[in-house]
TrEMBL record:
Family the UniProt entry places it in: Belongs to the bacterial histone-like protein family.
SMART domains on file: BHL
Stated name of the protein: Integration host factor subunit beta
Keyword vocabulary terms for this entry: DNA-binding
Highest taxon of the lineage: Bacteria
Pfam family, one: Bac_DNA_binding
Top-level taxonomy: Bacteria, Pseudomonadati, Pseudomonadota, Acidithiobacillia, Acidithiobacillales
Length: 102
């Protein structure tokens, strides 16, 4: 699922639940704001916890000495920041219950 498909699914689900006065543009703006806020919070090294979904946190990979595979020369690899996701228990249970063979 990509971002636009997710927004479309949310819009249709809200319509089914009776929120007829919400426009598609309102849903697109709300989802966009949520995702932008999450990205900004992670950039500021904040932890994001969404109950029953999971936790997003920032992991810092320390600088290290690497090796160029072509020349064999030693190179310095700078520190890197990466996003880590740990799914919540409810999500793990739901994913495992819907286990399909691919």
């Amino acid at each position: 699922m990509n971002k636009s498909t997710m927004m479309e699914n949310i819009y249709h689900q809200l319509r089914v639940q009776g929120y007829k006065d919400l426009s598609r543009q309102d849903v697109i703006m709300a989802v966009g704001l949520i995702l932008d806020h999450c990205a900004h919070a992670l950039a500021e090294a904040e932890r994001i916890e969404i109950r029953d979904f999971g936790v997003f946190s920032l992991h810092i990979i320390a600088a290290r000495a690497g090796r160029n595979p072509k020349t064999g020369k030693s190179v310095d690899v700078p520190e890197k920041r990466t996003v880590h996701f740990k799914p919540g228990t409810a999500m793990r249970v739901q994913v495992n219950q819907n286990n399909r063979s691919f």
